[in-house]
Amino acid sequence: MEHGNLTRVTEFMLLGLPQAHKLQLFLFFLFLLFYIVILPGNVLIILTIRSDPRLGSPMYFLLANLAFLDICYCSVTPPKMLVDFFSCHKTISYRGCMAQIFFIHFLGAAEIFLLMIMAYDRYVAICKPLHYASIVSRGVCCALVGAAWVGGFMHSIVQVVLTIRLPFCGPNELDNFFCDVPQVIKLACTDTYVMEMLMFSNSGLVTLVCFVLLLISYTVLLVKLRIQSLCKKNKAASTCVTHIIVVFIMFVPALYIYARPFRSFPQDKVVSVFHTVVFPLLNPMIYTLRNKEIISSMKRLMIRYSHWGGK
Fold first, then answer.
1. Cβ partners under 8 Å of residue 264, min gap 6
2. Are the CB atoms for 77 and 100 separated by under 8 Å?
3. What DSSP character marks residue 74?
4. Is the confidence at residue 211, as pLDDT, over 70?
5. Sequence-distant (≥ 6) Cβ neighbours of residue 294 within 8 angstroms
6. Regarding beta strands 173-174 and 11-14, do their DSSP bridges make them parallel or antiparallel, or are they unpaired?
7. What is the tally of structural domains in the chain?
8. Boundaries of domain holding 208
9. Sign of CA dihedral 208, 120, 112, 266
10. Which are the contacts of 103, defined by CB distance < 8 A and separation ≥ 6?
């Protein structure tokens, strides 16, 4: 800390990781396994979609963007956490803390908006199949994905601007393994009630509204599918169910963290680990294991590369 007229926090201590050496070692290898599976899994999805003309529909274009977001998202906090397992002085600088907050909310919000776009894509495909190609063209998809990134940036910049305006003069201990608004804001040496309400509106209410809208849209789609032919019904229903699973996996932890008062609960760290480390791993597994086209394309891609490698 720096001393002058006012003591200013220049770093935060991360107390969220366990102190027992054996448990730290076990968690290190467990999370490292998650991390080395996340990256190849998402990269493989992107390469498969880009290399196979059969996967040229907007749905797969959006899925490739979702995989890219997962790669970025799981690169914000896990690397620092893995290093801290072997560090005696588990700290993060003030600027590093603000950077973590920015990228967590930037990428998380962009992913939420992308899931909204994917729901819109499925609505058009099921309810207006004859006009699907003209309504959801590649240009429209690119514009919508760009809007999702811009929306994520706007959401995140509000979080960061509100946070950096707060005075931090001690204590500087965060009971977590990374920086996030609910923990950091409680360390401010001022009344944060108004800030908490603003951040709750910007994060909690937005997440809740998006979650409810997604549930309503997929419920309507599943009802619409009852009048489709059996073949189209099964394929579309399988895709919708996959999207619903991902929506629940992403939104339930986010709602627990942001759509409630900023108070500490014993299970907070477990939910945070699930939301930032385990959740990105589940996306590619769910989409690939439930999608026969992607699995077939992956097999063809690996066979093609194995033939090239054998020459």
1. 175, 183, 186
2. yes
3. T
4. yes
5. 45, 48, 49, 55, 60, 287, 288
6. parallel
7. 1
8. 11-310
9. positive
10. 72, 76, 156
Are 115 and 31 in contact by the 8 Å Cβ rule? The answer is no
Residue with tokens 């990374």: 178
Contacts of 180 (CB under 8 A, 6+ apart): 100, 101, 104, 257, 272
pLDDT tens per residue, range 2-44: 444 455 788 888 887 777 778 888 888 888 888 888 888 888 8
Q: 229 in a domain, yes or no?
A: yes
Residue 285, in any domain of the structure: yes
The predicted-structure confidence for 261-270, as pLDDT tens digits, reads as follows 777 777 788 8
The reply to whether omega before 171 is within 30° of 0 (cis) is yes
Burial environment of residue 21 by CB neighbours within 10 A (0 to 12, 13 to 18, 19 or more): exposed
CATH number at residue 194: 1.20.1070.10
Residue 1 lies in a domain: no
Tokens of 36: 């080395």
Q: E strands, the chain, where?
A: 11-14, 91-93, 173-174
Residue whose tokens read 């909204």: 116
CA distance 76 to 87: 18
State the burial class of residue 299 (Cβ atoms within 10 Å of its Cβ: 0-12, 13-18, 19+).
Answer: exposed
Smallest Cα–Cα separation from 196: which of 156, 167, 163, 151? 163
Q: Which residues pair with 89 in a beta bridge?
A: none
Q: What number of residues does the chain have?
A: 311
pTM of the model: 0.88
Whether residue 288 lies inside any domain: the answer is yes
